[in-house]
Amino acid sequence: MYARGRLAGVIMSITMLGGLGAAGLPGAASASEPARNYLVFYTDGHRATAERAAEAAGGTIQGRDDKLGYLVVRASDPEKIGADPSVVGVALDRPIGKTAGAPVTSGARHAEHVRSVPGGDPLSGRQWDMKMIGATPTGSYAKARGSHKVLVGIIDTGVDGKHPDIAPNFNQALSRNFVTDEPTDENGKPLDGPCEHKGCKDPADVDDDGHGTHVASTIGSPINGLGISGVAPDVSLVNLRAGTDSGFFFLKPTMDALEYAADVGVDVVNMSFFVDPWAFNCANNPNDTNRERLEQRAIVEGMRRAVKYARARGVTLVTAIGNEGLDLGKVKNDTSSPDFPKGMEKKRSVDNTCLNVPAELDGVISVSSVGPGGQKAAYSDYGVEQTDIAAPGGDMFDGGTGLKGASREILAAAPENVLRAKGLVDASGMPKTSSVIRDCHDGTCAYYQYLEGTSMAAPHVTGVAALIIGRFGKPGKGGLEMDPAQVERMLYATATPKGCPAPRTYRYGTGESQVCEGPTAKNGFFGHGLVDAARAATVAP
After folding, report:
1. Which CATH fold would you assign to the domain 11-15+100-538?
2. How far is it, in rounded angstroms, from Cα 520 to Cα 523?
């Protein structure tokens, strides 16, 4: 899924940049508004000017990030700071975030024992997605499985580093959590729930949502005789948690995760989310207040800088495109923003200048989703300018194969604590729905869950990028390094070309119609084609 959007549970969104008025409403400031911390982005070379502007507005400098060009300012009037020409945008600093597109789960009884596949893992027979891209014992696994020197960062809700089918490849030493859980939002409504750890800071090997663990598993679950196998089963998985238990991704944690990834030598990151609270960030939308415009400018500028910083230091960036079934180049209305705090959404007109972040940023590889029949999933966003490449993400409504129900989705690892909290397993540990599978080997049992969404598609591309880096990367910081532009070129060159359907207006079984534009070489549904692990594992430099 996408950590947020039409599919519940998979994708998440990021930080909300704008501020709230004294009454908790976005927009106008109040004379009695309390001071809060804001991220103040300044133009190149004008940090001192921005500092003076912040202080002149009654603000106090709390910190700064010279790498990405912003100040942390405690102030009660962010709009006054934002009025200075040296300031690009101003966003409220919130220590939480949300996923971009939740996964969909299904509900029938499962069969626990599944026939093993020779050379694979016991549940490999359920991985139609790996067969589709050639990640099989006779495909990419026979030629390239990645390398522990390849560091793959998962910017998500966390990764269950103790899961038996993730632990062998989990890099505990480099993993970090950049968020603090908040039991309730500022209006007192439940958010992340009771804190499980001191200071509401979860350890860096915990995932209380399940989204990040599923993503990590698709990328790099090992071939170990248990459960499933990932696209790149020999890589190192690094948890870069920027989303909270409630699935929100806010700006600063996300920027922190990207900056850290660049500094420690991470090779490729997966971003299956969008930055909250705006589905589309508009610089000058007349439907928004001045403060809301300042916030959206800050989100776009902050993420642009973080992406540029990471890419310049060798980080290949992969993201889910989104789960609203929208042509991102032709969006006219937004009714889902701002999505935080709950109940603040409004209807506003938007245009192609309003950006979904990070999917529409330069330097980011945006992934659309296909079902087991090979057609673009109805929920997947698309666009001839926005879609770079396609990958299997699941589609419960895809009737193009003999698969049924949950088996049309993507199976990957799930944290037991999350499944128990959601009531998906009984007291004895047995799954209560067909969306959950338990596999046991030599006394060790692990859980897996079927989910669908562009959040599930993106990690397939991330895994193939890791295979490419493992084959052609040179010794560097963190282990190996490779120019992201070269990785991107090889991803597209090895993808299987896939043209628009005929007719181009494709009607789904749900009655929904979507129009695919562009040639086979690059179109709105599939971008440069379907990612191909087998070709990436064998292609010459």
Report:
1. Rossmann fold (3.40.50)
2. 6
